[in-house]
Design goal:
BirA Bifunctional Protein, domain 2, seven-stranded mixed sheet, three-stranded antiparallel sheet, 13 helices, 20% strand, binds 3,4-dihydroxyphenylalanine
Length: 339
């Protein structure tokens, strides 16, 4: 009797099946109501008392082995099934993949980079924490210059002054200090101003600075570059340059584009004029060239600076600058289709 049980244990361990039906037959054969195990347990009373302990242990081993076998065979078949299903039906609609979206500031920044890189501008960056020289003094804004007040600076340290840059014009200076003309570069980046936060203004925002230095660069070159930019970026080809003042350029101008007066929104954003201011620009002041070790008798150049938020607000009709920083997914997911 004991030998028979041991033989069965061997059989169970050897057993393999490649269909659920075969596993079920096996289960019924050993573990079913009328199965071998129940028969053997019924024989228990006929075993001599001296052998009962060994017989009982062997029966338990057989029972556990049969149960384990059923479980592992079932598991194996199921995972094989899953794999077959996975590769099997390639026409089955797939699970939708949730894609994230780019932030509108990144989208517009990349578009601006794209437009200028097509005419040979490289991208350069500088630090957000600046010294007085690069943010002010080298840009023709010496100490006590009244225009410094316009910039609402966040200071980190005083004497010597360390501050959060108030504009990306600081990168102009760094770039000229480290590169020889000809220079064609744009510098996108984050800037900081100690201003009250409202729908139109924020204490953190982004700018793109442009700088072009070579021999014989004229205001006409500047105007043509800006016209190219506005055409590519907005699809608008009418601009005007209004005389203005920046310490680092002479002459200086503000650039307006003719946006049109077709819709009510056009009226609102252009205050009924059809014109929109989009950036500041000018011919780099000879003092600034000198400060960055470039000979102003040999070289001239132009520069411009624009706010990325302002352009994104125009392109996407975003009514409030604060929306860029709240990270509300209902806002952000509207940019999913744009790369
Ligand atoms: N830095 C100026 C600002 O933050 C923008 C600007 C104006 C940059 C004229 C320039 C420029 O390079 O030529 O308001």
């Amino acid at each position: 009797m004991l030998d028979k049980v041991k033989e069965l244990i061997g059989e169970v361990n050897e057993f393999q099946a490649n269909s659920p039906e075969a596993v079920e037959d096996f289960r019924i054969k050993y573990l079913g109501k009328k199965g071998l195990l129940n028969d053997l347990f019924a024989e228990f009373k006929n075993v001599e008392p001296a052998s009962r302990k060994e017989f009982g242990q062997a029966l338990n081993t057989l029972k556990n082995a049969a149960q384990d076998k059923v479980n592992t065979l079932k598991d194996n078949l199921e995972s094989a099934d899953e794999q077959k299903g996975f590769y099997g039906d390639l026409t089955r609609p797939s699970e939708p993949i949730e894609l994230g979206s780019r932030h509108p500031i990144s989208i517009v920044k990349n578009q601006i980079i794209d437009v200028f890189s097509r005419i040979g501008f490289t991208v350069s960056e500088g630090p957000e924490i600046e010294d007085d020289w690069h943010n002010f003094t080298a840009l023709n804004l010496p100490e006590y210059h009244p225009a410094r007040d316009m910039q609402d600076t966040f200071f980190i340290e005083k004497d010597p002054d360390i501050l959060l840059r108030t504009h990306t014009s600081s990168v102009q200076v760094r770039y000229m200090e480290n590169n020889e003309p000809p220079i064609r570069t744009i510098s996108p980046g984050r800037v900081f101003r100690n201003e009250d936060i409202s729908a139109r203004a924020h204490c953190i925002f982004h700018q793109v600075e442009g700088l072009y230095i070579d021999t014989d660069v004229s205001f006409a070159d500047l105007k043509q570059t800006l016209l190219y930019f506005t055409k590519e970026m907005f699809g608008k080809s009418k601009i005007r340059l209004r005389p203005s003042y920046f310490p680092f350029t002479e002459p200086s101008a503000e650039v307006d584009i003719y946006w049109g007066l077709e819709t009510e929104t056009d009226y609102k954003i252009t205050k009924g004029t059809g014109w929109l201011e989009i950036m500041g620009c000018g011919m780099v002041d000879p003092n600034v060239l000198k400060n960055a070790n470039i000979d102003p008798t040999k070289y001239s150049g132009y520069a411009f600076g624009m706010g990325i938020e302002r352009i994104a607000m125009l392109l996407y009709q975003i009514p409030d600058i604060r929306m860029f920083y709240e990270n509300d997914v209902r806002f952000l997911e509207q940019f999913k289709t744009v790369l």
